[in-house]
Write a structure and sequence with these properties.
Length: 118
Amino acid sequence: MASLVQYVVVRSDLLRTLKWPTGAVIAQACHACTAVIHQFNGDSNVTQYLSDLDNMHKVVLEAKDETELRTISEKLSSKNIHYKLWIEQPENYATCLAVKPYPRDEIKPYFKGLKLYK
């Protein structure tokens, strides 16, 4: 059985430059994770990932701003990687994205060069 992981990419400028409260930034990641799991609920990777709730694995990375986040989104779309780009309303801008769970070896290369969110 392959080790499944869910990657989440959050804009670091929300906290550092735009001075969002920490809780609001965390909520963006929670929204994206919940939405992508719901969106792909029938997927076999999602089913397997949810079958062992105490051992779910996520990697949270940072994008420097909305432009970088949208670039990552476009790259994932071009490779048919399933994800949810969270668009905060009413502001209507992208704050983070979460991929559905994938085998680690399959998904990791798409996030090469990104740093862990700090």
